[in-house]
Amino acid sequence: MVVPLIAVAAGLLFTTSATTADGTALREDRRPQLAQLIEDRRERVEASDKRRAALLAQVEAETDVLAGSDQPIAEQQTRGDKSRQAAGFTALRGPGLTVQLDDAPRLGDTNRPGNPSNDDLVVHQSDVQAVVNALWAGGAEAMSIMDVRVISTSAVRCVGNTLLLHGRVYSPPFKITAIGNPTALQQALATSEGVQLFRDAVSHFGLGYRETVEGSVTVPAYDGSSALNSVEVPE
Length: 235
Description:
The protein is an alpha+beta fold.
C-alpha cells in the first residue's frame, strides 16, 4: 500500500514542477541575466551623465552671453567663480598623499591564523570613512576617491565589498588621494583610531594598506550634482 502512495505523491510533485516551470528550466543560472542588467544600467547612467554634462555646458555658455549685457548676472557669476575652488568645482594640484586599501588575497581562508570570517577579509565602509576623516582632520585641501572628487556632501557607502560613490560602483583596491602637507596627513592617519584598527587587521588577516607620498598630484574637479535636498543655516 505504501508504494502506490509514494508513486502518487511523486507524480503530483512532477506535475507541480512542470506547471511551475511552464517550459523553462527551474534551475537555470540567472547570473548572466543579472550581469546584463547591471551592464545595461551602467550604460544608461553613462548616457545620462553625458547628457547632463552637455546641458550644463549649454547653461554656462548662455549665462556667459547674458553676463555680457546684464550687470546683476555678471556680479553673481563673479561671486560664484570666487567660491568654485573652495567648493571643489575646480581641479587642484599640489603635494599630498595617496592611501590604498585592499581586500585580503584568496589564499585558502581556512588556513589563516585566527580563523577569520569573510567580513574580516574585506574592506568595509567604516575603513574607507576612517581614512577620509583622518585626511580631512590632517588638513587636506582637496580629496578624491577612485579619482572622483569628493566634497562636503559626498557620501561613502559600501555594497558588499564594493564601494558606492556618486551613483557608481567601484571594486577594491580603493584609492584615496588628498592634497595637503604629507607629513601632517601621515600624522593624522597614524593617530586615527579607525585607521589603526584597519592596520591591525592588515597584520592579522593580510588586508592591503599602502601610503604613498605624492610630490605633485592632481585632484579632479567635482562634476556631480550640486543640488541640495535640504539645508540648515548654522546659528
